[in-house]
Amino acid sequence: MQSLIKGIHKFENEIFDSKIELFKKLEKGQTPEVLFITCSDSRINPNLITQTEPGDLFIIRNAGNIIPAYGNQSSGEMASIEFALDGLGIKDIIVCGHSHCGAMKGLLQPKIVENLPAMKSWLQNAETTKRIVFDHYKHLEGDALLMATIEENVLMQIEHLKTHPAVATRLARNEIRIHAWVYKFETGKIFKYDQATGQFVLLTQGATYSTIENTI
């Protein structure tokens, strides 16, 4: 906690004043360009890896960058997605997984979350990911299997995202773009899903972002 307090002191006395015009602008409201959905993992800092400022990203974070399919029961994810699109008019959504994801390890190895009932229940939202991995990646193990799971989970959570009315209606009118990313924190590289090849490729290799269409 002492390091946090020290950081707050520095922010209040040095950083805030250097960005005073930005914070005056933010006082009037927010106009983020992107809804960024990622994991709660402490090793990921969306603003750091995208080099964005406060107000640029509307962020949803949870264990495993999971998006429950739309249903009758409200959730924080559901409310945030609705607000981002209907309230803020965001036109780009990024779902970003990451290497060495603990939630995906728990999905592959249920014993890891056996004594974490809430986590165990939460991971049911990634059950389809698990089935896809066990059906199609039997030849993989260890880190390779985990990475395949991380990538497949990003794609599956995008399918869940498309069930949300605010998303589905805008996709039908080509008013939003959805991007699938995986961040490897040990290298600092971000990979995007390339629909043409069906593979995740280095993001900086392409000049434009591919839209994830209604079917992947």
Structure description:
The protein has 216 residues and is an alpha/beta fold. It folds into 2 domains: 30 residues, no CATH class; 175 residues, Beta-carbonic Anhydrase, Chain A, CATH 3.40.1050.10. The protein is built from 9 helices and 6 strands; from the N terminus they run H-H-E-H-E-H-E-H-H-H-H-H-E-E-E. The chain has a 6-stranded mixed beta sheet, with helices on one face. Helix 3 links the parallel strand 1 and strand 2. Helix 7 crosses helix 8. The C terminus is likely disordered.
Q: Please, what is the CATH homologous superfamily of the largest domain?
A: Carbonic anhydrase
- Strands, total number: 6
Helix content: 40-55%
3D shape: globular
Nearest-integer average pLDDT: 92
Q: What integer value in Å does the Rg equal?
A: 18 Å
CATH-derived architecture of the largest domain: 3-Layer(aba) Sandwich
Biggest sheet architecture? 6 strands, mixed
Strand content range: 15-25%
What is the CATH third-level topology name of the largest domain? Beta-carbonic Anhydrase, Chain A
The secondary structure category is alpha/beta
